Amino acid sequence: MMMLLLLLPAPRALVRWAALPQRLPLPLTVPRAGLRSPHTALFSRGAVSRSASGASSVATARRRGAADDGKLAGKFDSPTGQPRSVKEIPGVGMLSSLYWLIIRGYVSEYHELQIIHHKRFGSMWTSYTGREMFVCLADPDLIEQLMRQEGPYPVRVIMSAWDDYLMMRGHSKGLLTQTGADWKRMREVLNQRMLKPREVMQFADPLNAVVTELMGHVRARRGNGAATAVFPLPDVAQLLYRFAFEGVTTVLFETRMGSLEETVPKETQDFIRAIESMLSTTVHVMALPRWTRPLLPFWGRFVQGWDVIVNTATRLINVKLAEVKDCISRGQEVRGEYLTYLLASDRLSLPEIYSNTTDILLAGVDTTSNTLSWSLYHLAQMPALQEALCREVNAVVPGDAVPGIDEVARMPLLKAVIKETLRLYPVVFQNARCIVDDGVVLGGYSLPKGTNLSLCQYVLSMDGDVFPNPREFQPQRWLRGKDRAAWRHGSGGEGEEGAAAADDAATSEKTHPFAYIPFGFGLRGCVGRRIAELEMHLCLARFVKTFEMMPEPGAKKVLPKTRGVLVPSTPINLLLRERL
């Protein structure tokens, strides 16, 4: 009780605590099935319509292969036939949210806490992060209906702690925190270089150079052992974090940071540690009231991490700016893919370049490193799948050939492995939106302007009604047509078991498109998606082509944990043998 009182925002805590049982009893266990709220059917079959002005009513396409249930649109689970208040949505209050996060310890397992709430309340419930209430959505129909209504300036829920830091230091906002017309202007500039396939092609060679360095770094771990010797690769995620950092800085700053050198430069190491520190403390500073910041260590670490990130990024950008100015003064051609383009185009202010480059850096490192780590982890435990992938890669790029964009396009199993990894371990396990218009009616509830919504992507990934055998790693579920047929007939190396698994997991053609959105959707979708996918595909193809992977003997199962994003809870240790 004393711990809870410390975390409360005001003396009204005891009053709210007294009222808590009316909103949510605090069970020590939660049943794994049943316990759906009375409006569950409406959630998965309901409609979304504009309220207030009554601008429009949206009836969306049903799940692929499902019956058309449009006749249910507009029906509400209410005696009056009218939408109910947001206050009537079941869920957990502020104190109960703190109980689950702090006392029960779900601050590092927030993704699993959402599954508990989903099983208890159904596909729509409320919860709190700090003092902010969120309406949580765990139904692809609701998410689709919400996101297809987005206007020209979609608004993510503000990362209040990040916003507080930027205001405190007087820094400009970037894509992650900016809104409105300024956000759209910046987004249009960045889309030009980062989302158009023709533009992304130019990043393949620089990224392949980083992959080549990674292969050499891993090969050096073998030491003086025989070429066929088995050697350990401890803490794969840490190494791949350095790789991802080197890759994204190569793209953004057009320079190498030395992350894969035997002795990592101090500035680079400090930069990497600062990112890890800032992201890990984000969860705490978002969940705790502002008045606790001077009393607890999290805010100080958060600010310190941000300071190192911003100062280092600013220095690197200034170095490139000086190079561009020098070229212009000498009458020389200005060359460069990303940063040089931004500096020379004069479409963003220098503070906006600082902030957007930093934002993309933060978003890029975790996505690539964690996804690759989980991919290698599962491939090491599934030798038949690993060999099937190796055969696919060698068939497209035999010998010493290096894959590029065109070659990756002919590797369906490679892409399926990355896709399945992002399903099972979505780096961003929840997305968020804020209603900024006159409000919407969603699932039979009227959500007013200013309502925060959490789109629970991890919950959908673990829903057996959406993905059969949701906790099993089955890349074949994403194969289609002749690629699926090839797997069924043994290319997965598993004979009848492989065929059965393919039948069981063949969901790609009928899965609701909004059940799998690891990079978001629409105008607010991940601006670096194509580059991140390119980096992951190039790296995984070369890794499988170069090394045979095996699990560490006796190692326990590695589970994900929440650190702002979803990361391995314990080190992933592998054994490798070079393929000759």
TrEMBL record:
Gene Ontology CC terms, in alphabetical order: mitochondrial inner membrane
Residues of the signal peptide: 1-17
Superkingdom in the source lineage: Eukaryota
Entry keyword set: Heme, Iron, Metal-binding, Monooxygenase, Oxidoreductase, Signal
Statement: the UniProt record of this protein carries the keyword Signal: yes
Compositional bias of kind Basic and acidic residues: 65-74
Gene3D superfamilies for the chain: Cytochrome P450 (1.10.630.10)
CC cofactor: heme
One annotated GO molecular function: iron ion binding
Region of interest (Disordered), residue spans: 54-84
A Pfam family of this chain: p450
InterPro entries: CYP11_CYP27_families (IPR050479), Cyt_P450 (IPR001128), Cyt_P450_CS (IPR017972), Cyt_P450_E_grp-I (IPR002401), Cyt_P450_sf (IPR036396)
Residues noted as binding heme in the record, renumbered to the chain: 526
UniProt-listed GO biological process terms: C21-steroid hormone biosynthetic process; cellular response to peptide hormone stimulus; cholesterol metabolic process; cortisol metabolic process; glucocorticoid biosynthetic process; vitamin D metabolic process
Entry similarity comment: Belongs to the cytochrome P450 family.
Protein name per Swiss-Prot or TrEMBL: Sterol 26-hydroxylase, mitochondrial-like isoform X1
UniProt source species: Petromyzon marinus
Gene: LOC116940874
